[in-house]
Fold this protein.
Amino acid sequence: MSIQTRRERERAERERLIVTAARELAEAEGWDAVTTRRLAAEIEYSQPVLYSHFKGKGAIMAAVAVQGCADLAQEMRTARTAVKGTRKALAAVGEAYTTFGRRRPALYDAMFTHAVDLPFATPDAPAALQEAFGELVRAVEPIAAPGDDVGLLTETYWAGLHGLVTLVRSGRLPEEAHEQRLALLIGHFTAGMGAGAEAD
Amino acid sequence: MSIQTRRERERAERERLIVTAARELAEAEGWDAVTTRRLAAEIEYSQPVLYSHFKGKGAIMAAVAVQGCADLAQEMRTARTAVKGTRKALAAVGEAYTTFGRRRPALYDAMFTHAVDLPFATPDAPAALQEAFGELVRAVEPIAAPGDDVGLLTETYWAGLHGLVTLVRSGRLPEEAHEQRLALLIGHFTAGMGAGAEAD
DNA sequence: ACAGATTGGCTAGCGCTGCTAGAATTCCCG
DNA sequence: CGGGAATTCTAGCAGCGCTAGCCAATCTGT
């Protein structure tokens, strides 16, 4: 039994190594540079080893994406709990989200841009995904009007943030006015709130 | 001179043929199916002919994207002028935009998702791009508050629409509640308007 | 402790991609 | 009708994701 567990442990560690190498390579040189040959060289094994861990390159990217979601969730939580007030919390989370997307573009692409067959909006989505979405929900929920569906409202806010990130990153929108656009988005989502709800 | 012009005319026609074939193939089977070999077979020429017209596959996709922008601009204009009232106009354009994105996903990807080196937010952007954005501006401008920068507000609205389209299309958001999310987005963008501005 | 079974990794290769050099053909003009 | 220019095609390069089949190291049963 000890031998079995040791092997499983080593195998799990190698799997972690693959995912880490893929993420680092992608963040350093973009996903185009992440080829199975290059990745195999990076982990100092031959190509077929990758396929004994993952079904293919897409599955490796999916694993990186899940890891990235955990990172994003943590950054959003930190941002949200660092400020006081519902309006500020929504802004902080929005800021954290877009900053993440612009600071770690390759990771962001794996998570939200590239086609990747992960279950997303279902109960059997990976925990990290649900955590990240949950952070958004916690920020949006306080600004929802009485009759609003919080889930749908969160998804809509998410879409706004995602649009800003992707359009800026792909050069469709100039980078410089990003903060102003983000402020506009947040402003419109908090416009319906009661005026005296908080002391700014 | 007559011969020269005839050749140029034939050449221009073949270029149109390439772009059309690329668009149709992409819309029928996705961009992965649009290989240079396949495209060459489709137009009944050999591969290198493509490279005498375009710098590479990316340039062909860019040409398709520009053509798509013209289509989108027209559909948005039709939608906008078909209704009366600023709020309804904004909704109609948003609806037209997202419908376009979901009805012609391959075209939409070439325009707004895939990396393509087209000048976007500059004066030397292709006319079709500026037209499409101009249609958005015309719909957003009436709902802008006095101090607002209309351009930035339009970009923000665009980002919201783009986020909705891409997240739904990639399976990150369930398709069914799309209309409700769109209504939420539009609602928040028109929330600041004076109540009696129009008769619904 | 040793023979046989099993696991696991590697070499080599398939079919495909975007793209291009150089041969071959076609066309125009004198 | 022949020479020169423009144009198109054949053939191939390097690299991609992925996999079949061999080979060595390891574990198991006696």
About this structure: The longest helix of chain B spans residues 2-29. Residues 7, 45-49, 52 of chain B lie near DNA strand D (CB under 10 Å from a C1'). The interface with chain A takes residues 112-113, 115, 120-121, 148-149, 152-153, 155-156, 158-164, 166-167, 170-174, 177, 180-181, 184-185, 188-189, 191-192 of chain B (CB under 8 Å).
